[in-house]
Amino acid sequence: EAGVAQSPRYKIIEKRQSVAFWCNPISGHATLYWYQQILGQGPKLLIQFQNNGVVDDSQLPKDRFSAERLKGVDSTLKIQPAKLEDSAVYLCASSFGQGYNSPLHFGNGTRLTVT
Amino acid sequence: KQEVTQIPAALSVPEGENLVLNCSFTDSAIYNLQWFRQDPGKGLTSLLLIQSSQREQTSGRLNASLDKSSGRSTLYIAASQPGDSATYLCAVKGGSEKLVFGKGTKLTVNP
User: Fold this and answer.
1) Which residue of B has its CA nearest to A88?
2) Between the ranges A10-24, A41-55, A90-104, where is the mean pLDDT highest?
3) Chain A CB within 8 Å of residue B91 CB
4) How many CB atoms lie within 10 A of CB A81?
5) B39 CB-near residues (< 8 Å, 6+ apart)
6) What is the DSSP letter of B84?
7) CB under 8 Å to B36, separation ≥6 — which residues?
8) Chain B partners of A108 at a C-beta cutoff of 8 Å?
9) pLDDT tens, residue by residue, B7-32
10) Across the interface, do B97 and A98 touch by the CB < 8 Å criterion?
11) Per residue in A80-95, pLDDT tens?
12) A105 close to A3: Cβ distance less than 8 angstroms
């Protein structure tokens, strides 16, 4: 089974520029997550989708971050404008369902550096 | 608010040693606890998932235990190998269904 695909793998931008990340989950997985992992920290949930609806975006900085999951399959996460503190690895994950014991499968992430 | 703590932050052991990684969480009302492995520049790989009704799970040389009442979990790695070198993350899922992660333990197994 193909894993969670993410692109690009690396991105370097200047502050105040915009950037977008793409994620394609495992086929058949209804739930999709975006996590932010700052160096030395554990991942922090930014947004969770169930099909194409948002389940939780309480930790998403909505003034600069946006995400969408059209047609309930792949998803994009956008930052506009970027700040220095947005430098992190952005991880996408998917799970079969929203059930409590449905394990998460992670992609390799996109490493963002904001200069 | 759920908080997850992992001790130690880093651990270096010689090959062949048995070792224990620790994870503690503040809110015992959890649905499950997962242990993940993260290699440099990679995403997370799920190692073991323990449901709240379970006490332990085993996979090969890995054994994870859960004591929900005390808010603790341990990951036991038997006969460690250099290939086990990675960062190990613990995460708990609670009522909000949000997975809350610890900061991880960076393990180095020396040949």
Assistant:
1) B41
2) A10-24
3) yes
4) 15
5) B45, B86, B87
6) G
7) A106, B44, B45, B46, B47, B88, B89, B90, B91
8) 41-43
9) 999 999 999 999 999 999 999 999 89
10) yes
11) 999 999 999 999 999 8
12) yes
